[in-house]
Amino acid sequence: MREDYKRVALIGLGLIASSMAHAMRRAGMKSEIVGTARTEKTREEARQIGFCHRVVETAAEAVQGADLVVLAVPVGAMGQVAREIGPELAPGATVTDVGSVKRHVIRAVKPHLPDTVHFIPGHPLAGTEHSGPAAGFAELFDNRWCLLVPDEETDAEALARLTAYWQALGSNVETMDADHHDLVLAVTSHAPHLIAYTMVGVADDLERVTDSEVIKFSAAGFRDFTRIAASDPTMWRDVFLTNKDATLEILGRFTEELFALQRAIRTGDGEMLFDYFTRTRAIRRGIIEAGQDTPAPDFGRIRKT
Amino acid sequence: MREDYKRVALIGLGLIASSMAHAMRRAGMKSEIVGTARTEKTREEARQIGFCHRVVETAAEAVQGADLVVLAVPVGAMGQVAREIGPELAPGATVTDVGSVKRHVIRAVKPHLPDTVHFIPGHPLAGTEHSGPAAGFAELFDNRWCLLVPDEETDAEALARLTAYWQALGSNVETMDADHHDLVLAVTSHAPHLIAYTMVGVADDLERVTDSEVIKFSAAGFRDFTRIAASDPTMWRDVFLTNKDATLEILGRFTEELFALQRAIRTGDGEMLFDYFTRTRAIRRGIIEAGQDTPAPDFGRIRKT
Ligand SMILES: NC(=O)c1ccc[n+]([C@@H]2O[C@H](COP(=O)([O-])OP(=O)(O)OC[C@H]3O[C@@H](n4cnc5c(N)ncnc54)[C@H](OP(=O)(O)O)[C@@H]3O)[C@@H](O)[C@H]2O)c1
Ligand SMILES: NC(=O)c1ccc[n+]([C@@H]2O[C@H](COP(=O)([O-])OP(=O)(O)OC[C@H]3O[C@@H](n4cnc5c(N)ncnc54)[C@H](OP(=O)(O)O)[C@@H]3O)[C@@H](O)[C@H]2O)c1
Asked: How confident is the model at residue B221 (pLDDT cuts 50, 70, 90)?
């Protein structure tokens, strides 16, 4: 039995928050949705779209009487928002966040929250390369994982309620500790994003190959990197600065492997390359079997008739 | 006015050759399509699907009386196939290939061809991560580029005819010299593929993050790398071994940039990261404006209702 929150405060009204609001409505939740964002421009855009019941000026105002507060701002802004809302939180409220890094967010947010609230950090593993209030849609979390990061002191009932909430939004929920979260995400998200940004930057920098050639002939692999590297610069700057250690560790391993493959190319070691490329195929099969991607060729971009 | 080839011989019956056959039929070409592949298994599969008029046992047999011969085998096998068909080619025939590397193919193929044929190397920039005769479909080349690599001696009429052929298959055609082709493709395709293979290999290797976690939580960026890294191991081994210099040059540039970004992360230089990530967005916009990818979020994987 799901017990809907009475009032949900969304702090930040970008892709994630607006998608949550759309998904709450799709689920028929009875909660009042109150939202706020930093700039009047975004608040006004959110009002126009209408996914909140009320859009207010400040975070302090938004959390009044809310029994669920969702911090949906860039990771680097979480601490400041927490400081602003700390004194205003209703006793017994649950505070969660959707930040892509967990250890840093806990360190930045926790000191500002009163003991009377339940702080349960979270991270929905769902997103697109678009951002802002108009980018959201109800299906974003369907069949995606949402990771919650409780600790020993977390209230079981508050955790169960937040879990049911994310399930109603379409997610599968799992719990994990913060350090492991940050390492797993460094592998599955943060390092791949940095690598994609780097490759696109290299292409943009070359003198003997023009940007227009890169663009024209991108379909052979490169364009998938450009999609990843089109993600929001503020969000990603914050991710790398706040998940520094795990990201640098994975990038170190990556560089080692890349050198080994470069050496195989240089020395003409075809067997090593063949074996390596055969091994990586198995991972792809696993992802498709786990329902985390489509087996359609080229992501189903091409519509066969 | 398109003048259809009378008989087209497809040597190799994988993704590219089978897609060419489907596209020829879609275009209503009057050509007879004769195909062959290395193994009886593939030949039989192609017969079952029925995209060729005839499937024969050997390349030497397939090229008999053909006025267009298409080499659609892995780059490393082109030389041997050329040696096999050289003595059998009809005078005046056009020989082309679809290999992903051009300088090496020219060096390997040209010595085996008689002066009486027109050799015009080519490369359709279209593909998926699937391979084999069942992977082909008529739409593969639609709105994609096909690069042809004539030299000073190339017969203008033969070139015009091959250009019209690829256009009828759905492609836009451009000409380029072999060295420039290999450099452009190292940027837009070969380096990105090696990087994706490497990242997937790293994820598969880690002890503290399990494969099942990598698979489960892949939606945050990594899964796009796995699609690229699911491509055919033979094809890609050959590409790297035969486009060694350009690939290693681009990977060298990539490593330099990656080090600069790692340093920015380590020293907490948020401005450098923000500026870098802002610059790479422009390339993405260019690709979408050029019609080479969909602006739909997440490649349109998510169907909004
Ligand atoms: N996008 C993804 O793929 C994804 C996936 C999972 C998790 N996340 C995480 O979700 C969070 C939000 O991401 P998003 O994609 O929804 O971002 P977004 O679309 O860019 O929206 C960010 C929101 O935060 C507000 N904001 C920015 N800086 C602020 C500050 N200093 N103080 C107060 N509000 C501020 C913005 O308000 P203004 O518009 O008024 O500036 C905007 O409403 C981030 O922590 C991100 O790491 C993102
Ligand atoms: N896939 C792409 O994305 C893509 C895009 C553009 C260009 N290309 C290029 O197109 C060519 C073919 O690629 P594809 O994707 O069509 O490959 P594919 O689906 O793997 O098919 C390759 C074909 O070549 C035959 N073959 C393999 N080794 C051979 C050998 N030593 N001698 C004779 N025949 C041999 C195979 O026959 P069996 O099945 O009997 O072994 C098979 O019919 C490659 O040069 C590749 O670089 C590929």
From this structure: confident
Fold classification of A180-268 (topology level) = 6-phosphogluconate dehydrogenase C-terminal fold (1.10.3660)
Strand partners, B125: none
Task: State yes or no: pLDDT of A149 exceeds 90.
Answer: yes
In chain B, the N- to C-terminal Cα span, in Å, equals 45
Please tell me the number of Cα atoms within 13 Å of B279 on its side-chain side: 16
Judge: B199–A192 Cβ closer than 8 Å, yes or no: yes
Q: Check if A7-176 and A180-268 are the same fold.
A: no
| Chain A hits for B141, Cβ within 8 Å | none
Q: Does the pLDDT at position A305 exceed 70? A: no
Contact between chains at A226 and B129 (C-beta distance less than 8 A): no
Contact flag A229-B194 (C-beta cutoff 8 Å): no
Phi and psi at residue B170, to the nearest 5°: 115, -10
Measure the CA–CA gap between B89 and A56, rounded to whole angstroms. Answer: 77
Q: Is the pLDDT of residue A76 over 80?
A: yes
Give yes or no for residue B303 having a pLDDT over 80. no
Q: In the prediction, which pLDDT does B144 show?
A: 94
The reply to whether ligand 1 has any atom less than 6 angstroms from the CB of A65 is no
DSSP B124-150: E----S--SGGG--TTTTTT-EEEE--
DSSP codes of every residue in B103-115? HHHHHHHGGGS-T
If you average pLDDT over residues A84-101, what whole number do you get?
A: 98
pLDDT digits (tens, 9 = 90+) for B185-194: 999 999 999 9
Residues 85-144 of B with CB under 8 A from A: 100, 125-130, 135, 137-140, 142, 144
CB contact under 8 A, A202 and B257: yes
- Biggest distance spanned by C-alpha atoms of chain B: 67
Query: pLDDT tens-digit profile of A20-72?
Result: 999 999 999 999 999 999 999 999 999 999 999 999 999 999 999 999 999 99
- The CA B243 to ligand 1 mean position distance, Å, reads 42
d(CA A148, CA B75): 48
Domain segments of chain A: what residues? 7-176, 180-268
Residues of A within 8 A of B217 (CB-CB) are 125, 145, 147, 184-185, 188-189
pLDDT level of residue A263 (50, 70, 90 thresholds): very high
* Residue A33 CA, distance from chain mean position: 21
Residue A304 has pLDDT above 60, yes or no: no
Third-level CATH fold of A7-176: Rossmann fold (3.40.50)
Is there a contact between A63 and A9 (Cβ–Cβ < 8 Å)? yes
Tell me, in angstroms, the distance from the centre of ligand 2 to residue A12's CA.
Answer: 50
Residue scoring higher pLDDT (B304 or B193): B193
CB B149 within 8 A of CB B121: yes
Q: Which residue of A has its CA nearest to B147?
A: A217
Determine whether the shortest distance from the Cβ of B12 to ligand 2 is under 6 A. Answer: yes
